[in-house]
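Q: Structure tokens for this one, please.
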Amino acid sequence: MDAVRTDRQHQERSTRDAAAIWIALDFAYLVFAGTVSVNECVAAIGCATLATAWWWGVGRRGGVRFHFDRAAFRPLGAAIQDLPRQTARAGRHLVEALRADGAGGRICEQSVAELAWATPRGPAAPAARAVGLLAASLAPDSFVLVLDRAHGTVATHALGDGKP
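A: Here is the predicted structure, written as tokens:
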């Protein structure tokens, strides 16, 4: 009896998650489309339905499960707060590269020991690593090329001379 109840609760949670994903994707499509018209609404419904069906059929069967906790989102908040300064810095580097008539940028390798997001522990570790990778790549003047956990390094491309 408990197995049936647990299976039913899991199914209800999956259906609720699917509905939330569909609504979020539909809304995101309309935000990025920039206009609300019949054509855009039909396209949003179609895209959200296909993406949710993909999640339902394939995404839930994958080996990596993301369990988010509040601590996993800390790097993202700091990256968003720093975005205006990083944008101004990237603009300055691009103008300097245009004046110098050359390509700017360099590749920087760092040890994962220097980056808290690269070596999280616990059940939320995959989610924390994913959010940290997104936050590290969010700045307009740098992005992560590769996180090589086997060798313990993170390669980042950065404009200018500063550390990414």
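A few notes: The chain has five helices and three strands. Strands lie at 106-111, 142-148, 153-158.
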